[in-house]
Specification:
Radius of gyration: 16 Å
Strand content: under 5%
Number of strands: 2
Order of helices and strands: EEHHHHHH
Number of helices: 6
Number of domains: 1
Helix content: over 70%
Shape: globular
Length: 186
């Protein structure tokens, strides 16, 4: 399925979902195969900041493929803006360590997760993507709450970030493949 807007090319829904899966996979791979485990908070800020900036770009580009209505696209773009701001804060605050990493990751994940769940629950939006939005957004909210509830530990915080990336990459990758198959594009 595609969404068209005057003056802008349509973005295929499976491609939009796959782009999000790739961004999450990049995060998971970076965290999993990082060579520097001596400074986990600084590394975590780089990984989080890089991922959030990548997510902001992906969400901005694929917004028409993720939302059908103007209001739905606005929610996707607000998620992109929150990601952009969070990414910049993470990269600017590299020297702040766990004192910035844990609350920033928690707050950005809570905000983006709630916005994604709200987008998924909107009746006017793409029914085929609403389940994805609720699951992925719900996982983000869960990560945010978890990070606020557990003790300050940089390795745990970075590990949760990588695990979330891996789970979401697989989930959205399967979703993109199913959408592609369902749309008859083999």
């Amino acid at each position: 399925m595609t969404t068209t807007r005057p003056g802008r090319p349509a973005v295929a829904t499976p491609l939009a979902v796959a782009a999000r899966a790739v961004a999450a996979a990049v995060l998971a791979l970076v965290v999993t195969f990082a060579l520097d485990h001596r400074h986990p908070a600084a590394f975590g800020l780089v990984a989080l900041g890089g991922y959030l900036l990548l997510q902001a770009v992906v969400l901005t580009v694929v917004a028409p493929g993720l939302a059908r209505t103007r209001g739905g696209r606005a929610l996707v773009l607000v998620r992109a803006a929150v990601s952009l701001v969070g990414g910049v804060i993470a990269l600017v605050g590299l020297g702040s360590g766990i004192a910035l990493l844990r609350p920033l990751e928690a707050l950005v994940f809570l905000a983006v997760g709630v916005l994604e769940v709200l987008g998924g629950l909107r009746r006017s939006e793409r029914a085929e993507l609403s389940g994805d939005a609720v699951v992925v957004g719900g996982l983000q909210v869960l990560v945010g709450v978890l990070l606020l509830a557990v003790r300050e530990d940089a390795l745990l915080t970075v590990g949760v970030l990588g695990a979330w990336g891996a789970i979401v990459a697989v989930y959205l990758g399967i979703s993109a493949a199913n959408l592609r198959r369902r749309n008859g594009r083999a």
